[in-house]
Amino acid sequence: MIILSFDIEEFDMPFEYGKSIPFDEQLSISTQGTLSILKILKDAGVKATFYTTANYAIHKPQIVRQIIDEGHELASHGFYHSDFKPEHLLQSKAKLEEIGGVAVKGYRMARMMPVDEREIEKAGYVYNSSINPTWLPGRYNNFSKPRKWFYHQNVLQLPSSVSPLIRFPLFWLSFHNLPMGVIKMLSSATHRKDGYLNLYFHPWEFTDLDQPERFNFPKYVVRNTGEAFINRLSTFIAWAKGKGFEFSRTDAFVAAIQDNPILKK
């Protein structure tokens, strides 16, 4: 099983690199990328999960409705991408449910930062996918966290996928910088060990980020963005389907665990 997920958010990353970007451009770039993602998934006949900030949904409700209308899952990515308060957990869930007209069961913290699991449970989430169980210099060190799904505070925790043993992260930066053959090898090994892959990306990766004057991103961020990444993800999905791997929304994967008393233990 392969779970594809996308963090739909305000594109505020340039601020981390000393550049400013107007809010309308943040929304425009994320929307452009989201539409590219939806086309990739539609062409491949694959469903996915879209972790969306309430702030984005408020300004782009038509995109949220398109995500839902095309059969994908709507989950929470917080109220704002760069501002967090515990009350945002419930507030973002309520706003997304109001705009989308569907139940929101999952949460992912912006930038995979730590979040209080008791607050996650109190806000009514079924699962949390906010852990990257590896070491990312300058961000976090989660080597002590489980690699596979587990329960904590009555909430199912679904870490993003990392390889066995060395815990090489199978996240967005890897998909941009590694040769596709290496990505496929690591994906196969991890799927064989764990029985599933939980992969995540962002809409702005599917736009042209190689604009130093505008964004000032390092090469490892801009490599294979835009059309090149559209082709990379399309190629990966086609390869995975050819290998017999199935794709699932996160809520369906979680429901299968909850419905199986042996797995839930």
TrEMBL record:
UniProt GO BP? carbohydrate metabolic process
> What InterPro entries does this protein map onto?
Glyco_hydro/deAcase_b/a-brl, NODB_dom, PuuE_HpPgdA-like
Q: Which GO terms describe its molecular function?
A: hydrolase activity, acting on carbon-nitrogen (but not peptide) bonds
**Record Gene3D superfamilies:** Glycoside hydrolase/deacetylase
One Pfam family here? Polysacc_deac_1
Signal sequence annotation? none
Highest taxon in the source lineage:
Bacteria
- Location of the NodB homology domain: 23-97
What is the recorded name of this protein?
Polysaccharide deacetylase family protein
Q: Which organism is it from?
A: Mucilaginibacter aquatilis
